[in-house]
């Protein structure tokens, strides 16, 4: 695979279980040495200059990286020493990271009392103490409810905007990649499948999915094919489904043509093309089908550790 993450951008890695997302991240964070090829962090070869490369990045792994029987502040204090932050700067860095992750009020509580979202935000806070040029997140919102996921991303994006930090993250949440990523790279079995902007990737599908419920199905099929060059992809009794590029422009014309022929449209549904559709087209199944077992295991493990198990 070969791709670039632009400075100050947000880049998402998507792929099924075993695709190589975590392996790639571990190479970039110098935990694994590549057997061949090159990888650079802001121009530094991660094989030749691992220590310098590590000094430019913040990393949050999938695995739990906190001590639950310590407070949030104590966890960050330990990490500040691990990261060799000068003693004179530790308190400032800790307070700054807690503030960005909205955890100041909870910083003196034991971590095992934290919610899942707070737990994850503290892990990210630890990574932010090094003031990274690039923040690398492996499944940053795994197992969190939608509100907690939004809170995590609000904090990350706020930090990114203030410090111009680059963000690279792996996720199985398609909506997350679509909403927050400037660029997406899909990988499978250790190989790059495709890279592009979310809106460009969705063009692979061929447009938005339109479903019509009509009386004269055969006549509608003919009108749509002859006047607009659109093929029906699914049909069932009186329901037709087809794909339309720029549906907001084309669909009104289709409806006008049907009205002119006095054809009644009983029901109309439009669903915009999604990254899930792209994944299904490229991989043959939803990413959730691939990830379900592993995600349940990781989520269960995180819950157990937070409860002190």
TrEMBL record:
Record's keyword terms, sorted: ATP-binding, Nucleotide-binding, Transport
Keyword Membrane listed: no
Domain of life: Archaea
GO MF annotations, alphabetized: ATP binding; ATP hydrolysis activity
Residues in ABC transporter domain copies: 1-214
Alphabetical list of PROSITE patterns matching this protein: ABC_TRANSPORTER_1, ABC_TRANSPORTER_2
A Pfam family per the record: ABC_tran
Name assigned to this protein: ABC transporter related protein
Protein source organism: Fervidicoccus fontis (strain DSM 19380 / JCM 18336 / VKM B-2539 / Kam940)
């Amino acid at each position: 695979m070969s791709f670039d993450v632009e400075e100050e951008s947000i880049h998402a890695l998507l792929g099924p279980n075993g695709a190589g997302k975590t392996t790639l991240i571990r190479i970039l964070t110098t935990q694994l040495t590549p057997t061949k090829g090159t990888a650079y962090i802001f121009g530094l070869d991660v094989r030749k200059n691992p220590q310098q490369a590590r000094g430019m990045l913040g990393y949050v792994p999938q695995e739990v990286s906190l001590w639950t029987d310590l407070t949030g502040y104590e966890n960050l204090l330990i990490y500040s020493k691990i990261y060799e932050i000068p003693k004179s700067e530790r308190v400032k860095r800790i307070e700054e990271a807690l503030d960005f992750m909205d955890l100041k009020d909870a910083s003196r509580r034991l971590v095992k009392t934290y919610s899942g979202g707070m737990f994850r935000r503290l892990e990210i806070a630890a990574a932010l103490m090094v003031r990274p040029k690039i923040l690398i997140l492996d499944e940053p919102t795994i197992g969190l409810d939608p509100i907690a996921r939004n809170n995590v991303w609000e904090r990350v994006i706020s930090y990114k905007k203030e410090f111009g930090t680059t963000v690279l993250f792996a996720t199985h949440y398609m909506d997350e990649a679509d909403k927050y990523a400037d660029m997406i790279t899909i990988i499978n079995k250790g190989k790059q499948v495709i890279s592009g902007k979310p809106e460009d990737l969705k063009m692979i599908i061929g447009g938005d999915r339109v479903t019509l419920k009509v009386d004269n199905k055969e006549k509608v099929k003919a009108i749509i094919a002859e006047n607009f060059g659109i093929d029906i992809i699914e049909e069932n009794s009186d329901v037709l489904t087809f794909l339309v590029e720029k549906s907001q422009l084309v669909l009104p014309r289709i409806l006008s043509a049907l009205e002119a022929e006095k054809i009644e449209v009983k029901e109309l549904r439009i669903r915009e093309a999604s990254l899930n559709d792209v994944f299904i087209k490229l991989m043959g199944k939803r990413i959730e089908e691939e990830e379900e077992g592993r995600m349940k295991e990781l989520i269960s493990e995180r819950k157990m550790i937070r409860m002190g198990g």
